[in-house]
């Protein structure tokens, strides 16, 4: 990568690279990682903003949808321990407790004592939680397709392969 954009539209990363090239010409040849990683970082922020707004339109917080979808895809009986959520979401037990409290008040999840270990509490998807998740997921996938509309399916699959390679090289190999 030589830092040029071959006539394509410019973005904020192009501006950042240009500024650094002017400020530190000695680093111009070393700025190539910013072409990808700067864009990935900015893309993460932009996607988070899109996803939060999408969830808010459906009276959910993004973290709540994360809990709902995690429970739904876990399969029957659609329940996990709070500890399993903490591990998956990398948030504090207080944050998970507050999130589950809000979701329980909305009727999306319920807490149930583990029949084998009464000290353990599991979070279970309610029927309302199933309904919300099913409706949300269909809309969510359509929204994601909308966000990727500037690419065709083959380009998306190629990008997905490349991003997978990068994630694996950085150790992100499992959700469990």
Automatic annotation (TrEMBL):
Domain HTH marR-type as annotated: residue spans: 33-168
Q: Drop me one GO molecular function for this one.
A: DNA-binding transcription factor activity
> Pfam families this protein is in?
MarR_2 (PF12802)
UniProt keywords (A-Z) are:
DNA-binding, Transcription, Transcription regulation
Database matches in InterPro entries:
HTH_MarR-typ, Tscrpt_reg_MarR-type_CS, WH-like_DNA-bd_sf, WH_DNA-bd_sf
Keyword Heme belongs to the record:
no
SMART domains, per this entry?
Answer: HTH_MARR
Xref: Gene3D superfamilies: Winged helix-like DNA-binding domain superfamily/Winged helix DNA-binding domain
Descriptive protein name:
MarR family transcriptional regulator
Q: What is the lineage of its organism?
A: Bacteria, Bacillati, Actinomycetota, Actinomycetes, Kitasatosporales
């Amino acid at each position: 990568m030589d830092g040029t954009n071959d006539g394509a539209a410019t973005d904020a990363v192009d501006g950042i690279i240009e500024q650094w090239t002017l400020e530190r010409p000695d680093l111009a040849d070393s700025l190539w990682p910013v072409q990808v990683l700067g864009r990935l970082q900015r893309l993460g922020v932009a996607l988070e903003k899109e996803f939060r707004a999408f969830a808010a339109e459906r009276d959910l917080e993004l973290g709540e949808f994360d809990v709902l979808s995690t429970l739904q895809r876990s399969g029957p009986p659609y329940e996990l321990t709070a500890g399993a959520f903490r591990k998956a979401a990398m948030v504090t037990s207080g944050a998970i407790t507050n999130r589950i409290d809000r979701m329980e008040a909305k009727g999306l999840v319920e807490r149930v004592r583990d029949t084998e270990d009464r000290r353990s509490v599991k979070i279970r998807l309610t029927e309302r939680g199933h309904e919300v998740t099913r409706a949300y997921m269909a809309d969510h996938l359509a929204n994601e397709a909308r966000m990727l509309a500037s690419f065709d399916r083959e380009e998306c699959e190629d990008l997905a392969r490349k991003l997978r390679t990068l994630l694996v090289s950085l150790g992100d190999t499992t959700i469990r």
